[in-house]
Specification:
globular; 4 helices; Aminopeptidase; alpha+beta
Length: about 160
Amino acid sequence: MAEMRSESVSAGTVSFRPMTAESAEHLGEALAVIDPWAHYDYTPEMLSEFLSAKEEDAPRFEIVSDEALAGAISVRRTWLRGPYLQFLAILPAFQKCGIGGAALSWFEARARHDKARNIWVVASDFNRDALAFYERFGFVQVANLDGLVAEGVGEILLRKRLLTR
């Protein structure tokens, strides 16, 4: 998953680069005020710490659109016979420009290259836009995980099957 690749989208060129401390700090500040992170009261420090963490099995990447920081993605490489999209965030100014779709295409292409059977993601049950987004890309809801992040809120596990044999 460490391979970096550029994607062309309606917003221009999107690339995925290893997360820097500076980008993690900027993204932490920007993401803490939008859902779903604001809903869960994640602080800028909590988000920055997560984004700057170094995990061999779950690398973090900054998403760059035409040399501007547009978001972040983290993929846990080994999870239930395929990778798990642990974190995907697109800054509001870059939403609805094809960048999220480019990120999912990049995620899926790496999984197919690695011959994964599935790709996985979780979205909060109140985050209807995220659920619809993933479903447009072929993900199917497979489980509701009540209280995973917070009491009274469900997290929806979605899967896209890649290999059927």
